[in-house]
């Protein structure tokens, strides 16, 4: 019997289990599927934890999400085409839900397709290697006895699908003066509650989504001032009073931050919104994806199959405009490669396909072109399998409109409504604005 390991039960791993389960229900022989998840529950980053640093077993905490985190894109851009928001909530809901609502939705589909049966929790994978003689992958997993003693066991698999995410291991730069700063310096991975910074002057490094959202959060929950230092380019939004963008940090001197334009500010704390590393220490070097965060990592056929050994696959390793639907489309491709429904191309064909996509990506130089690039990538994936179709052009249009909305009002874009690419239903306008709504609970959201 064919054995397939899925590593991780976040949105990607759950998409993979769902894809297999759909095939099984339709009568396919899917072999044996085993999903290993290091946490005690599913949902990946969406499974909120207050913990930072190490988890209860001494592993790095996976979670990077924080309290009061709301979707930063319209939910209509990530809607599962085979499990709509209307189906899950029984009625249309506003377009920008908080974390708990999206978690409920992701888990809702996983419960409906009953994929929990495939998952072994509290089971971190410690090693993945390939046995050339046996032509199988050797996967080493750690588990714990009720006594607390841990056990390592190694199993053989014909296919391995890595779905461990890439927004968990922080990229932590150092600037002169960090070692003598008399306040807290933390990475966004360890940021949990904006109320910690009420009344404080905050310095944020970075100019991407984390910097943008943590700056807004901090102000919303009462920080005195937020200074955002960019390395390459300012975000350039029309920021509310209290948030200022400045050029790169040069150094800290006591409480004082000095920037490359010669200006300086006194700050109480520093949040490094400096991104994450693709980090797979458990995978043998020749199987290990090594890439910066971009829209088409090298070495992955269709963005999924490891070209040097395509029975190893990776999900969700791209930078992400598209999320849940892209993960679904990838998971259907991975499934069909495993089941032999999609032919496994020759190394030359795979290399040529990857090169063509990366060539195209090299010519992308604006946000709108990035959106188009990832739209075409998802479109390509969707032609390969029977993943139920949805109005991809509408989603593309939503992303474009969303970018314009953000430029128009960075505090107001989350109050806009979008139409579902699956059902056409339009998210109702919430009765309170995002800026004036401190409560991010599911119960409160469903009343808005
Ligand atoms: P993850 O969600 O990271 O899940 C990976 C899983 O693998 C985890 O459960 C982890 O415990 C497990 N794992 C890791 N290592 C091992 C191991 N060795 N053995 C076993 N299990 C392991 N996307 C959106 O669409 N909308 C948003 O608003 C949004 N907000 C975000 C906010 C933040 C702060 C961050 C960091 C990301 C956000 N994202 C958002 C993007 C996010 O990447 C995706 O939504 C999604 O969580 C990715 O799913 P994943 O399964 O690839 O990875
Ligand atoms: P990211 O998009 O990879 O951005 C990393 C940022 O760090 C870039 O701006 C980069 O600047 C900067 N940087 C890297 N090294 C630096 C250094 N040495 N000094 C100064 N700046 C440095 O990472 P992210 O912003 O953490 O986003 C990760 C994911 O989380 C995204 O998918 C995002 O959508 C998601 N997210 C969502 C929300 C939400 O509201 N739902 C909130 C936060 C994050 P350069 O431009 O100079 O390279
Ligand atoms: Mg812009």
UniProtKB/TrEMBL annotation:
InterPro entries per the UniProt record, alphabetical: FAD/NAD-bd_sf (IPR036188), Flavin_mOase (IPR000960), Flavin_mOase-like (IPR020946), FMO-like (IPR050346)
Enzyme class: oxidoreductase
A Pfam entry, by short name: FMO-like
MF annotations from Gene Ontology: flavin adenine dinucleotide binding; N,N-dimethylaniline monooxygenase activity; NADP binding; trimethylamine monooxygenase activity
EC number in record: 1.14.13.148
Organism superkingdom: Bacteria
Cofactor(s) annotated in UniProt: FAD
Keywords, in A-Z order: FAD, Flavoprotein, Monooxygenase, NADP, Oxidoreductase
SUPFAM superfamilies in UniProt: FAD/NAD(P)-binding domain (SSF51905)
Family membership noted in the UniProt record: Belongs to the FAD-binding monooxygenase family.
Protein name in the entry: Trimethylamine monooxygenase
């Amino acid at each position: 019997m064919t054995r397939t390991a899925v590593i991780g039960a976040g949105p990607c791993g759950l998409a993979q289990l769902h894809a297999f389960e759909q095939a099984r229900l339709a009568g396919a022989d899917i072999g044996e599927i085993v999903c290993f998840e290091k946490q005690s529950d599913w949902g990946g980053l969406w499974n909120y934890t207050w913990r930072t640093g190490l988890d209860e077993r001494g592993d790095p905490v996976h979670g990077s999400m924080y309290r009061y985190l709301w979707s930063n894109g319209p939910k209509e851009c990530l809607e599962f085409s085979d499990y709509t928001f209307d189906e899950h909530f029984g009625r249309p809901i506003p377009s920008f839900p908080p974390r708990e609502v999206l978690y409920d939705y992701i888990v809702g589909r996983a419960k409906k397709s009953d994929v929990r049966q495939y998952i072994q929790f509290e089971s971190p994978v410690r090693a993945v290697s390939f046995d050339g003689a046996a032509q199988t992958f050797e996967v080493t997993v750690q588990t714990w006895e009720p006594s607390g003693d841990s056990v390592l066991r190694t199993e053989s698999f014909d296919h391995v699908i890595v779905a461990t995410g890439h927004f968990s291991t922080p990229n932590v730069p150092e600037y002169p003066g960090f070692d003598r700063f008399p306040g807290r310096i933390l990475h966004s991975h360890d940021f949990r509650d904006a109320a910690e910074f009420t009344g404080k002057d905050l310095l944020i490094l970075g100019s991407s989504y984390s910097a943008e959202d943590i700056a807004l959060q901090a102000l919303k929950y009462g920080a005195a001032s937020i200074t955002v230092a960019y390395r390459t380019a300012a975000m350039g939004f029309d920021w509310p009073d209290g948030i200022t963008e400045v050029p790169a940090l040069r150094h800290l001197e006591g409480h004082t931050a000095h920037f490359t334009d010669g200006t300086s500010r006194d700050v109480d704390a520093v949040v490094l919104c400096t991104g994450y590393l693709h980090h797979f220490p458990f995978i043998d070097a020749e199987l290990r994806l090594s890439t910066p965060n971009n829209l088409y990592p090298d070495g992955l056929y269709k963005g999924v199959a490891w070209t040097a050994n395509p029975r190893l696959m990776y999900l969700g390793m791209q930078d992400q405009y598209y999320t849940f639907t892209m993960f679904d489309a990838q998971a259907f491709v991975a499934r069909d490669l495993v089941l032999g429904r999609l032919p496994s191309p020759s190394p030359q064909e795979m290399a040529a396909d990857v090169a063509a996509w990366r060539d195209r990506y090299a010519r992308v130089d604006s946000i709108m072109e990035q959106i188009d690039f990832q739209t075409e990538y998802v479109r390509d994936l969707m032609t390969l399998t029977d993943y139920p179709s949805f109005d991809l052009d509408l989603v593309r249009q939503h992303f474009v409109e969303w970018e314009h909305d953000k430029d128009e009002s960075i505090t107001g874009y989350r109050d806009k409504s979008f139409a579902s690419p699956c059902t056409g239903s339009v998210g109702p306008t919430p009765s309170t604005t995002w800026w004036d709504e401190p409560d991010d609970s599911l119960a409160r959201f469903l009343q808005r």
